[in-house]
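job 3f2a | input accepted
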Amino acid sequence: MGNTLYTIHPNNSSTIIAAFDTVWKSTDRGNSWTAISQELSDVQILRSLAIAPSNSNVLYAADQTHMWKTTDGGATNWTAVTLPTLNNSITYIAVHPTDQNTLWFTVGGFTNGQKVYQSSNGGASWTNISGTLPNLPIKMSIVHYKKATDRNVLFVSTDLGVYVSEQALPTNALAKANVSDWSQYNTGLPNVVVSELEIYYAPTGPDKLRAATFGRGLWETDIDAALPVELTSFAATSVEGNKVSLNWETATEVNNYGFQIERKSVQNEK
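job 3f2a | predicted structure (270 res):
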């Protein structure tokens, strides 16, 4: 027997979406089901499914090599999403919590540079944000941290633990997001395959990133835990009178979004 792909509605726990070669919906916790798609994949079982939290009529589904989308909850036929050329299989889809058109998908296998892709227009086009992620399969999870509203914070699970990336949001609709590279997020985590990630949003105290591993149990860490930046040099040089040029280098930056520079003017005493 195989595993059934399903997801629970983000705003209504009575509604479940499940998929085989067709997508099905239950509004009574699984007592009854209604098909909400045509047969999408005639050769493979669907393996990725996501609901847009901001608009539950927008759903995405994928088998290993194709993706489909509906914007009316499946009232009419789903449409195919054009994907970049891939050498390996799609493993997971995630949708932005407040923007139905921003989504990500991950890729398994061992093709260097084909790990994570992002779309800001509902899948009409894609940007490769794999960066320097190691050439290992991205397992069954990518999650977006919704409390960081001024930027996109993404966590992915891999065969070597968890990686994080932060990207500054574009300044206008035509600009592209400023994507930072990926850093390991593995402090205290054993060297292990991580197969699933979830975020627990705490009513008080720090939120938690929870990781399910292959054979090593469940682990969690504070998302807002302070992580160090190792500064190796810092120099300030006077330029053109009252201007200053700052130059610095770091040995490590883990989960660092950027630097804040403060300036103070001091008058010379006579």
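job 3f2a | The first strand starts at residue 5 and ends at 8.
job 3f2a | closed
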